[in-house]
Design a protein that fits this description.
Beta Polymerase, domain 2, about 45% helix, about 150 residues, alpha+beta, 4 strands
Length: about 150
């Protein structure tokens, strides 16, 4: 199987902007989406274990979800941001955590902020973190994790 290069992936993205019915470009886009499935599941499972350990210490509940951006949403985003290359799009895969903690006020993990900080420390030890944004006001953690090697077709 031949290696799919970043150049081929970006050309497929550009082709889909011009003609969303291009079958060869759509196949490359689908391969690029599939590359993100394994890292998504690894990080999702890692976070589930890490957060649940913390949340269980203080009787908190945690809801997890994950998603891969749909192909048509990817093409629409490429159309909106004409200077963006497909390989540079950073939100192809995502994980959402919804936390409700019931910790007593003096507990070390009394709020979502501390649980997120703990998770971020765990993620940084386990994965190559390229960028991170933490917004405690919205209880939102965004982490850009290195994806590693490109897929083989």
């Amino acid at each position: 199987m031949p290696l799919i290069t970043k150049s081929q992936i970006n050309k497929a993205g550009n082709s889909l902007i011009a003609d969303s019915q291009d079958a060869a470009a759509a196949e490359i886009l689908e391969l690029w989406r599939r590359v993100h499935v394994t890292p998504l599941h690894k990080v999702h499972n890692f976070l589930m274990n890490s957060v649940r350990r913390c949340a269980l210490k203080c009787d908190g509940s945690v809801i997890f979800s994950n998603r891969l951006k749909r192909s048509n949403a990817i093409v629409n985003k490429l159309r909106r941001f004409s200077s963006m290359d497909l390989t540079r799009m950073q939100d192809l895969a995502g994980i959402r955590l919804v936390l409700h903690t019931g910790c007593p006020p003096d507990h070390e993990l009394r709020d979502a902020n501390q649980i997120f900080q703990h998770c971020l420390a765990d993620i940084t030890k386990q994965f190559q973190v390229r960028d991170k944004i933490f917004k405690p006001l919205y209880q939102n953690l965004w982490v850009n994790i290195g994806s590693g090697s490109l897929p083989r077709a």
